[in-house]
Fold this sequence. Notes:
The protein is of the alpha/beta class. It has helices at 24-31, 79-82, 85-95, 107-113, 158-172, 174-183, 197-200, 202-211, 213-230, and strands spanning 8-13, 36-42, 47-50, 54-57, 60-61, 71-74, 100-104, 121-122, 138-139, 146-148, 151-154. It has a single domain (3-230), classed as Rossmann fold (3-Layer(aba) Sandwich), CATH 3.40.50.
Amino acid sequence: MTDELRKLNIAILVCPGYMPVDIIGIHTGLGLLPDVNVHLVWKNLDEIMGSPAFPTRATTTFEDCPAELDALCAGAVPLDVLEDTETLEFLADRGSRAQWVAGVCVGSLLLGAAGLLRGYRATTNFHVHDLLPYYGATLVPTNNVVEDRNRLTAGPATGSMEIALRLIQDLRGTEAARRAELTMEYAPRPPFGVGTPELAGPEMTRAALAEAAGMKAPFLDSAKRAAERLGVAVPAA
Length: 237
């Protein structure tokens, strides 16, 4: 059997409070390909509620998830999952052997909490860019896909689609990725052109950061605890 025909195993974390927007591109892009098993993975198969109000069921438990994965992916999750021992142990185990490890938005912090970004260049949602160093990662302040060896990270929403296309390119070839981009008609044309801090400008960016300050504070506390657990020197203020 050629490598092109080898069945792929992709695991995508879902959990109570996860953000479907951050994983739907990966799920769709890879799930539409032949000979691909896409596993939505959580502790159990009970119904869970994504955010905002998106009922979901995992298809595979942590225990039953294949040990060898072609890609392990995570999007944004709530604070309690960032510090959930069972989840972090699962990610650390599968991520240590996966061909690719990918995080979208706060999913990058989750990978960091599992020890999977230490020594890697990475990015995340601009609201929490400064938290990545607490996990031993080197921040690349962009919403574009950052690739460092077998780690892929990106900002929210469209980052999921762009990571999907990069995974398809590596796992199934450039022509397959080009066809996938066309099939999904992925050609973003944002109506306002303010989708990054650079495009939005300092005033709008400051307002967005101020609006999210209350949400960010507990994530900073969590990042500091992770730094201590991982033995990472806390960045200077």
